[in-house]
Amino acid sequence: MLHELYPDAKFVHIYRSPYKSVSSTINMYRQGIPAMTFEDIPADAEITAHTLEFFRRMYTQYFIDLARMPAGSVTEISYDELCADPVGTLRRVYEKLSLPGFETAEPLIRAHAESQRNYRPNNFVPEPELRDRINSELGFFFEHYHIPMQKDREE
């Protein structure tokens, strides 16, 4: 829809390992739902099922839409790559999307990156049962982004 509204627009998609993003989303629901409702709070199994269904549907549609986008209008970057090297990653985004003005933006990007230097995101690690469900239900995501699936907790 955005491409139809803005046919000359460029898009950046930032993806993150489903182990982290699904676990983080489940935590958000667990923490947020009680604070926002007087209704019965869904069981953890229901929250987990809903979250996995949401991610499956969202990325299924995203990959369909991505295949229809014109070459050079979308680039995908990993959240981990962005955190590890924000300036270099954004430089590559500008290059891949043929965007002008990186030299002008670079000092602002560097300043913002420096201001976030001490930020540490939450690091949720799924229990083995959730990890196995993520592997089973979101395998297509791992395949698209060439992310290895975890089999054992130590991996």
What does this structure look like?
This protein is 62% helix and 6% strand. The chain has 155 residues and is mainly alpha-helical. The chain has a domain at 49-155. A two-stranded parallel ribbon has the order 1-2. Helix 3 (44-68) packs parallel to helix 7 (128-137) and helix 5 runs antiparallel to helix 6 (102-115).
For this entry, give a set of tags.
single chain, 155 residues, mainly alpha, two-stranded parallel ribbon, 6% strand, globular
The number of helical segments is 8
Q: Compute the number of strand runs.
A: 2
Overall 3D shape: globular
| Order of helix and strand elements from N to C terminus | HEHHEHHHHH
- The fraction of residues assigned to DSSP E strands is 5-15%
N- to C-terminal distance:
39 Å
Category from helices, strands and their pairing: mainly alpha
Adjacency order of strands in the biggest sheet: 1-2
Please give the share of residues in helix: 55-70%
User: What is the subunit arrangement here?
Assistant: single chain
What is the residue-mean pLDDT, rounded to a whole number? 93
Any low-confidence stretches, pLDDT <50, length ≥5? none
What does the largest sheet look like? 2 strands, parallel
The rounded Rg comes to 18 Å
